[in-house]
Amino acid sequence: MCRADRLSWPFPLIPMCLLAPSGVRMVSAAERFQRGDSNGDASFDLSDAVQTLGFLFLGTPETLSCLDAADSNDDGDVDITDPLHTLGYLFLGTPAPPSPFGACGEDPSTDDLTCESFEPCPGPPDPPVLETPVSPTRETAIELCAESRYKQ
Ligand SMILES: [Ca+2]
Ligand SMILES: [Ca+2]
Ligand SMILES: [Ca+2]
User: DSSP string covering 28-85, please?
Assistant: First the structure.
């Protein structure tokens, strides 16, 4: 009797996705970003601090498409400390923004910020297409057996 047969009501089968550990998840393209690149133009400069300040205090832009990118210091909030962190790195030599900085990547720290889109970071490359293994035919099996017999 297989395990699934034994797990009947009141223990209905639970989809495996619900049983997966919380650390295992699929990463969509929108979750990849470059930290500090608040305006999403694939460069890290003064305009990113200006973009975040405009968002916070002027309402222009009204929204940021990738809040994780604007979270320059990766403390889980987008606030005045983020453009200050950016300016500190650019002009005062303070530490660089945490990963992913300077390259596309995922947020290594969990927070409530979202990243709905970040154009400079396309999704992960498609997995390589594996060739279908060729099943040996009866003829090739006979040939292989014959070869091994002669080698002995
Ligand atoms: Ca930028
Ligand atoms: Ca922050
Ligand atoms: Ca984070």
Answer: -GGG-B-TT-TT-SS--SHHHHHHHHIIIII-SSS--SBHHHH-TT-SS--STHHHHH
